[in-house]
């Protein structure tokens, strides 16, 4: 071995290219895993608080009607709360379904179709739900006043 | 009066009749069964409660049906050849005593799941070994080899001590529900094999292995079902080892 020859490394060599099983986007699965671990606990807090505020405080379950929901969505806090709950729940659940599809749908066309349907469902529900939350009008002009929250009388 | 042959010896273990229900298949087929078709066959053997499932299988093969095929080598829980699904759990036939299995009922013996069956209880282990090869289970270093041993402290050794116990019987990998549905998954054993080198202070190929395991078919497919930890006949905390690899990948610290 001469001084200019590459450094000698003992041990067996790996043949290139190494067989790589199913690598698509390096690191993508790691981020998916991190997202699940982070969104899970956040969802637990969001949902339990949501249930507590709706069912345990005030008049409990009998208070829930159109007026109650309208009153909540008049406050930006609850708008953001419900939006976060909607988005995280759909993405968390959708990602879980994606993993299931990857586990069980081995035929390429079936895998693609199910992933496509899942993506449409997740995005569709997030978009529709966000529309309701952010463009919600608590005092529609020609609605029965008895169904509306009390502050609507001042708006009219 | 001297002792007679009829009186039972002190501490003698009573013999009993045990039924084994074995999932069989023959690649060449037979009059009743198509080639490769799996079917159940029952055998009755006389055995002692302290006998192992492997002893019962031997009795069947030697005295009743010589065509029964299964792997075994050392017969003492070291070589890892005779992993099989006994009463719906992966175990080594040579380490499972009949008395621990309720011998009053038929003992169900199947080949391990998720690998192609070749004959009776023998499966094709090649996909399993291919995963192991992919994580490069050998010491990787740079620079000149030292003229003496590569030393490490007891604390450094303790970090990967658990995963050095692996005998590659495939009980963990073939108990993994993710591996059953997706054979692309490396499986618990390959991650245990990688763990043994990743956390070895003498090895320098950690990030090559971690890169392989950071893959779509790598550690992120693990759903912490803990089947592997329960199945391991060597008592390796497999799920913990997988989680340590995940932690190394998410924190970047080994």
- CATH H-tier superfamily of chain A: Fumarate reductase/succinate dehydrogenase, transmembrane subunit
Task: Please identify which CATH superfamily of the largest domain in chain B we are dealing with.
Answer: Alpha-helical ferredoxin
Rough outline of chain B:
elongated
Strand content of chain A: under 5%
Distance between the termini of chain B: 74 Å
Total of DSSP H or I helical runs spanning 4+ residues of chain B: 8
Percent of residues in helices of chain B comes to 25-40%
Question: What is the CATH architecture annotation of the largest domain in chain B?
Answer: Orthogonal Bundle
Write structural notes for this entry:
- The complex is a heterodimer of chains A (156) and B (254).
- In chain A, helix 1 crosses helix 3 (76-104) and helix 3 packs antiparallel against helix 4 (108-134).
- Chain A has helices at 28-56, 66-73, 76-104, 108-134, 152-155.
- The radius of gyration of chain A is 26 Å and the shape is elongated.
- Chain A has 156 residues and is an all-alpha fold.
- Chain A has one domain: Fumarate reductase/succinate dehydrogenase, transmembrane subunit (3 helical TM bundles of succinate and fumarate reductases, Up-down Bundle).
- Chain A is built from five helices and no strands.
- Chain B is an alpha+beta fold and 254 residues long.
- Chain B folds into two domains: 15-123, Ubiquitin-like (UB roll), CATH 3.10.20; 126-141 and 153-251, Fumarate Reductase Iron-sulfur Protein, Chain B, domain 2.
- Chain B has eight helices and seven strands, in the order E-E-H-E-E-E-E-E-H-H-H-H-H-H-H.
- In chain B, the strands form two sheets. A five-stranded mixed sheet of chain B has the order 2-1-5-3-4, with helices on one face.
- In chain B, helix 5 (188-198) runs antiparallel to helix 6 and helix 5 packs across helix 8.
- The longest helix of chain B has 14 residues, at 238-251.
- The N and C termini of chain B lie far apart (74 Å).
């Amino acid at each position: 071995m001469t001084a200019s020859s590459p450094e000698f490394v003992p041990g067996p060599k790996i043949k290139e290219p190494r067989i790589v099983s199913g690598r698509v986007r390096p690191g993508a699965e790691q981020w998916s895993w991190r997202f699940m671990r982070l969104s899970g606990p956040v969802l637990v807090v969001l949902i339990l608080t949501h249930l507590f505020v709706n069912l345990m405080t005030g008049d409990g379950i009998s208070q829930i009607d159109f007026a109650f929901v309208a009153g909540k969505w008049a406050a930006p806090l609850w708008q953001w709360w419900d939006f976060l709950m909607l988005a995280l729940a759909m993405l968390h659940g959708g990602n879980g379904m994606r993993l299931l599809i990857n586990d069980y749908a081995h035929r390429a066309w079936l895998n693609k179709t199910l992933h496509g349907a899942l993506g449409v469902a997740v995005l569709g529900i997030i978009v529709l739900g966000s529309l309701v939350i952010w463009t919600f009008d608590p005092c529609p002009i020609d609605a029965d006043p008895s169904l509306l929250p009390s502050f609507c009388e001042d708006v009219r | 009066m001297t002792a007679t042959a009829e009186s039972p010896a002190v501490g003698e273990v009573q013999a009993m009749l045990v039924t084994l229900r074995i999932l069989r298949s023959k690649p060449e087929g037979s009059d009743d069964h198509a080639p490769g078709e799996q079917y159940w066959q029952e055998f009755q053997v006389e055995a002692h409660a302290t006998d192992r499932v492997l002893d019962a299988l031997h009795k069947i093969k030697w005295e009743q049906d010589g065509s029964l095929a299964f792997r075994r080598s050392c017969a003492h829980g070291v070589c890892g050849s005779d992993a099989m699904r006994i009463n719906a759990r992966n175990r080594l036939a040579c380490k499972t005593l009949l008395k621990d299995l309720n011998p009053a009922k038929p003992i169900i013996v199947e080949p391990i799941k998720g690998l192609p069956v070749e004959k009776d209880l023998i499966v094709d282990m090649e996909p399993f070994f291919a995963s192991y090869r992919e994580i490069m289970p050998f010491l990787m270093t740079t620079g000149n080899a030292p003229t003496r041993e590569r030393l490490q402290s007891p604390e450094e050794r303790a970090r990967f001590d658990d995963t050095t116990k692996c005998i590659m019987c495939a009980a963990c990998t073939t108990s993994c529900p993710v591996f059953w549905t997706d054979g692309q998954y490396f499986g618990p054993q390959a991650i245990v094999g990688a763990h043994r080198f990743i956390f070895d202070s003498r090895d320098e190929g950690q990030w090559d292995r971690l890169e392989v395991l950071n893959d779509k078919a790598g550690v992120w497919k693990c759903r912490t079902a803990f089947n592997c930890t329960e199945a391991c006949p060597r008592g390796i905390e497999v799920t913990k080892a997988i989680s340590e690899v995940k932690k190394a990948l998410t924190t970047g610290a080994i």
